[in-house]
# Entry
Amino acid sequence: MKNIPISALIGLFFTGLYLLMALLAPLIAPYGMAEVVGDVWEPSSSEYLLGTDNIGRDLLSRMIYGGRTTIFIAIVATILSFVTGSVLGFLAAVLGGWADQALSRFVDLVMSIPSLIFALVVLSVMPVTVPVLILVMGLLDATRVFRLARAVAVDITVMDYVEAARLRGEKLIWIIFREILPNALSPLVAEMGLRFIFMVLFVSTLSFLGLGVQPPQADWGGIVKENKEGIVYGIPAALIPAFAIATLAISVNLVADWILNRTTSLKGGRG
Amino acid sequence: MTDPLVKVRGLKIGATVYPPGEKPHPIEIVHGVDFDLAPGQVLGLIGESGAGKSTIGLATMAYGRGGVELTGGEVWVNGRDILQSDIRDVRRLRGGEVTYVSQSAAASFNPAKKIMEQVTEAAIFHNKFTRSEAEARAVELFRKLGLPDPENIGNRYPHQVSGGQLQRCMTALALCPEPDLVVFDEPTTALDVTTQIDVLAAIKEAIRDTGVAALYITHDLAVVAQVSDHIMVLRHGDMVEYGDTDQIINTPQEDYTKALVSVRSIDHKEKQPTDDPVLSVRNITARYKGTKFDVLHDVTVDLYPGQTLAVVGESGSGKSTLARVITGLLPPRDGQIEFAGRILSPDLAGRSRDDLRELQMIYQMADVAMNPRQTVGTIIGRPLEFYFGLRGAEKRKRIAELLEAIEMGDGFIDRYPAELSGGQKQRVCIARSLAAKPKLIICDEVTSALDPLVADGILKLLLDLQKIEDVAYLFITHDLATVRAIADSISVMYQGKVQRYGSKTEVLSPPFDDYTDLLLSSVPEMKLGWLEEVIAHRKMESAGN
# Structure
């Protein structure tokens, strides 16, 4: 851990900062999340650091609470998509044959429908609550993870040590979690960083379209939606969440790149 | 004596290593090597892996592969020090004055271009010949190297000729621009033994006819003895011994050279078959899924408790397939396998835990036979836990015993496979299979990826363990020297059939069938003039051609 490149350090710093703000939101936010404290679209001042929003709520507080919601949903959905995606992907690779065919073709089918449209359709008939949102996002994204996990695991299952485990009579659980998973972990972890960012973008998009996090609950996509009319009058309120999304995306990517580099260098193989 | 073509003085070569968990640091891999090579002479460079022999060979082209740097000394080729020359001059040298033949022709040819185009490329690039002259010369070389249909073989793509033929095409490629020096880097190592001898004879003849000088790099002393005038023995980047081929083979001075010459001196007394075989393979016929071709036809062999059955054959003879059938990875189409008095289920899923435990396997490539994320303790401990339910201190004690048995000691228990040498990895694999207390271990080419001296140690260990544990080995190999060292009975496989089967003495004594004769006579012997003798007495074309 001694020689972390500067880019990764910057990434770690900002990622850490966002995570801390999300965790400590009630402590650091100057006002309540849905509290109307001033006039509509007040400019930034010592009282309201980022100004106020379309109905006079403090924008900084909304941003902090919104970050909390956005990051929480993205993390849980990413975990869900990784657990489902990689377990099914490993299973397909290990079982092979018709089980692999069935799973892979089903995943192809789901992937052939644009995920945003799929999500909009599902969410328009289901009650839009946070658990439903997470479930829909996580399962849709699991198809991408499935493809990666299967591709990585197919390479590993042909190794002699997996064959040796099979000849020993090991059960599927051992082969997947003890032989394959440790060797597939580094590409998966790196992918996880990227997937997390896609999740942030996904939930923001859904909220912007009105099918994500429901008001008065704040989230970054929702804040853009609420304040988008302000852009016409030169009010920057809608740009601030966009900026937050961009910086979070870049910093998480920097960290993911570093992990990928560190674990898949040519010198040590997958070591 | 005329001026040497190549003069190497104090050649030092370095590289940067990247050990896990440490800072990268430079190391020296060749520590000052000197030699001369006169025009038309052949110098053999011999040593184990890591001896620096390929690196020295490439240094005569002023080239360092994969981050290797030429750090000191002089390399004179045709009267100039190429380490001091500018890049344009070096470019003229590479592929023009000095050419290179690599170990794997299959990986070195561009699969998308025809052979002729690639063989003539260097000669045309260096303006040695026009295209038509180069092609005429290539055809002549093809003929000289004994390739079939020399006029038209150049119009084929690399995948349309056999491995032995491709290696000869590569020799033609190297000789086409009329170089002064050819570097042969293990040109026959990847070939089957019966193919190797043809390629070797072709190379030797081509060297003699064209009067080119050559550096011949190999780890096989018997091979190099056939082609070279002088031999240099290398170890860990230092010269051990340098002399005439005759002197090195017949009167080696250094201990290390003596060990190389006398390798495979294991004395093994053949055991007689007892009453009940531990494994009996009966009339097995098998093919891979989705193919219409039987890889094994009606194979029947027996193996007795505590003995070794060697299954010998070339690549494609079906010997590894036989192992897959016995282990249950490939259910046979016909026939059955009796093991320890019971009929084994044809597929893995139908076998009991005891069936699995008593039948273990050791693989050729120890690196990929062990999970790189598990420690030696986990690798050896898992069968103990899995089959015998050992845990905690009891398990650790047994692991230590096993590590002791493979002559490594319990200091290795927390190491990862990447921290072990090739021979140690293979020993850990042996310990893993022994942990199951098996009745039979299938050894699939277990020594072929190892250096001769290390391989010798592994074979001795296997024989010792056989005495103690009374385990039977089914030993799959293409190396007849190994077979002589350890087998009690032998089964010679050829094109999926058992060609010859019996006790070691029976199989290895005349009268031979044609194939066994070819196979036996193709094993390089460590004596001068062996190659010519064998070629003169052959009855059968080698299978790989």
Summary: The domain at 6-268 of chain A is CATH 1.10.3720.10 (MetI-like fold). The CA atoms of residues 103 and 216 of chain A lie 40 Å apart. The mean pLDDT of chain A is 87. Chain A has ten helices and no strands.
